[in-house]
User: What shape does this take?
Amino acid sequence: MQVPLLDLKRQYVTIESDIKQAIEEVLSSQHFIMGPKVKELEQAVAGYCGTRHAVACASGSDALLLALWALGVGAGDEVITSAFTFFATGGSISRLGAKPVFVDIREDTYNIDPDLIESCITDRTKAIMPVHLFGQCAEMDWINDIAARRGLAVIEDAAQAIGAEYNGRRAGALGTMGAFSFFPTKNLGGYGDGGMVTTDDDELYDMLSILRLHGARPKYYHKHIGMNSRLDALQAAVLLVKLPHLDTWNDARRANAARYNSLFDAAVVGTPVEAAGRRHIYNQYTIRVDKRDDLGDHLREKGIGSEIYYPVPLHLQECYADLGYEKGSLAVTEKAALEVLSLPVFAELAAEEIEYVADTVKGFAV
Ligand SMILES: *Cc1c(COP(=O)(O)O)cnc(C)c1O
Assistant: This one.
């Protein structure tokens, strides 16, 4: 049996005719960038997340960048975030000339440990950027409480968490702004790059809308220096077909995760922890084992896809050597980076495939 980490084709065949029709509409309109489809998607995503506004852009990385930029984050500023994440989280901070300040994670959820945030706040700190890693929201009440007391903004890196909930509210509506990615492997993936920033704040909404169009308003009159970060109408059309299915697909991922959990002996395989009040949407189903690399090799030999998210935490990346972190600086993060392995969890997996993956993991002496 072959079980890939992700098989996008299985989803595609279930929505193929709707997708083709939506693409055909865009082709007939010959309106390719921004426009009514993008506006419709912005309103749909804002409605879905429960925010007043949403601003589409070219990628999740740009969504993070635009969110920080709209806040006025720049040279000399500091932003507190996690090092156990995709590079864009830290990279967006650095690209504005600001400094990422990496805080260790919690052992159970892999998300930033709020207990360690306050001691890292300085008079240069502008924002806290928690990552909802693997599809589970960070400890947002606690983080928002710190931010409110210290006068900081909170940007959710919700790239992996569209549809995830925290005490009944959705990711993207839990901080000052939320940043989403529509990269094809995310739970709501387009057929190319795309991103979105959500917010309730009218002024930030205005600034985000201007910055993504080279800072112009009206066209050709530039009050600010922005960037080109627009969304294609084709991507918006695809995403509008997919959004109504998102909850069903997320539920299927949750059911697959529950099935794995019931098949694994928690004493042997570290299974993901869903914290109280959370709705984890399992962009990744990530286990922890001692001989992680050997297990990955074993799974490959047995035809099973797996991946390490993430092998090198940001504070130990070569490009961040000048920040002065060393091995051991963030002990929980570094240990996780050595032990995690993500298994196939996509919505269309068959029960036999999950059993085969679980049996193969269990058959390996871990
Ligand atoms: C995917 C991802 C991003 C970046 O999104 P892109 O659309 O690939 O630019 C940022 N942060 C996290 C945590 C991600 O998983």
Remarks:
- The domain at 8-103+112-244 is CATH 3.40.640.10 (Aspartate Aminotransferase; domain 2).
- Residues 59-61, 85-86, 88-89, 131, 157, 159-160, 181, 183, 193, 195 surround pyridoxal-5'-phosphate (CB under 6 Å).
- The two ends are 22 Å apart (CA to CA).
